[in-house]
TrEMBL record:
This is Damage-inducible protein DinB. It comes from the Bacteria. The lineage of its organism: Bacteria, Bacillati, Bacillota, Bacilli, Bacillales. Keywords: Metal-binding. It comes from Paenactinomyces guangxiensis. Belongs to the DinB family. Pfam families: DinB. One of its GO terms (molecular function) is metal ion binding. A divalent metal cation binds at H48, H136, H140.
Amino acid sequence: MADLVFQLYEYNVWANKQIFNRLKELPKDVYRQEVQSVFSSLSKVLAHVYLSDLGWIEVFSGKSMNHALALAEQLQEQTESKEIEEMEAMFSELAERYKSFLSHKENIHKPLVIEHPSGDLMKTSVSELVPHVVNHGTYHRGNITAMLRQIGYASVMTDYGVYLYLKTKGESLRIR
């Protein structure tokens, strides 16, 4: 299970890099272009994903869900204002934090009791929640793909199957 959890997270990092690489190929104004969609711009989607991922690693590290939500609220405007290169660096730093945390096998099976803002308790573990983090990222990479198509640009393949195929072929995990 520990290896699968780590592999899923590695996939998430790879897929995010594919999105950043694609966005950097496009005209600079595309990143903040207003779009009629779930999010009003690509920059806001990426800020949301980053702040969610940041919140989960905070929870995994022992902080409360209320702390994670307050941190996201506090950093939202500042995060949304970042340029694409700054966001990419922030994602990279956060990925290193996750990898360091997940490299300690005892952390992967660490039991968590999370108090939902409603007051309800959820008993779970890091190994059960990392797939949620990955799935959340996948969902929003889909939003990005739809938004790019809506404004006339192609996206890039970020499917887990593509990641596994390239990994088993021993090829570079950078595709076009």
